[in-house]
Amino acid sequence: MDQKSNFEKQEDRIWEYLKWYPSMQQVEQLKSLQFLLKESNKQVNLTRLIEGNDFWVSQILDSLWPFKNDLNNQNKSLNIIDVGTGCGFPGLALAIAMPNSSTTLVDSTSKKTTVLKEIIEKLNLMSRVHIRTERIELTGQNRQFRHKYDIALARAVAKAPTLAEYLIPLLNSTGKAVLYKGKWCKEEHNELTKALIPLKGQIEEIRKFQLPKSRGLRNVIFVSASEKCPDQYPRSIGVPVKNPLIS
Ligand code: SAM
Q: What are the residues whose beta carbons fall under 8 Å from the beta carbon of 64, sequence distance 6 or more?
């Protein structure tokens, strides 16, 4: 099988899992994203998940599956923030898949956000994708960002209680924090439940998905704010990791 038909097969398969079929423009943007990440990876080590199914399944499908139910409503306008976005996942994949959304990608590593800015410009997404180079403990205390988002998400950034402290202060009154997790065990569930008490959050739903091509089981934890998150959260830089809200 030549490279082109192999690629088209992978691409078709992932859309079947989502029961959503992107426009030609969205497919082109995703292909360009893969190309631009490959190019940038030659200069800066961003990700090893870049070729074939590593990109289409472990990056794109893994980013999008928690939003499977929203993707067929392309007019949906969400204000999204991705915390610890790295080279743009899950936030940038979601921004491409939801063209009426506005997305902020936050990471404290300027090496990564510099590359991301160049990629966003080349994809012509500057009007609705914004990059912020900062620790989220600071962003979460900034009035411009606090209590502003419909969706605050994070993948592979920290343990669940720490993530909850990063994400909940960013939510508006109907917003959802989306915690991307691989395995999800009882101990983690109990720790998150404890952390949600001072943060005034509650677990809404836990969804599971088996990624194809042996890419493993994924869990996603949807959390909402039951009341406005108290002003003291997130605490100062480093405290949510060193002293998570689990006791
Ligand atoms: N979310 C991406 C993914 O799933 O591929 C990247 C994951 S990478 C393992 C974790 C990223 O989180 C790193 O780029 C790191 O700089 C960022 N990060 C960790 N703690 C952070 C914080 N407190 N504020 C902002 N960024 C943070």
A: 18, 20, 71, 90, 93, 94, 97
Ligand 1 centre to CA of 72 (Å) is 29
Domain 3-242 fold is Rossmann fold (3.40.50)
Provide the token pair at 125: 């997404």
pLDDT tens, residue by residue, 64-121: 999 999 999 999 999 999 999 999 999 999 999 999 999 999 999 999 999 999 999 9
With 0-12 / 13-18 / 19 or more C-beta atoms within 10 angstroms meaning exposed / middle / buried, residue 9 is exposed
Closest protein CA for atom 8 of ligand 1: 86
- Looking up tokens 């088209």, which residue turns up? 8
Calpha distance 247→245 (Å, rounded): 6
- Report d(CA 24, CA 129) in Å as an integer: 20
Report which DSSP code applies to 1.
Answer: -
pLDDT of residue 48: 86
The verdict on the CB of residue 133 being under 6 Å from ligand 1 is no
Residues of the chain with pLDDT under 50: 1-7
The pTM of the full predicted model, rounded to 2 decimals, is 0.95
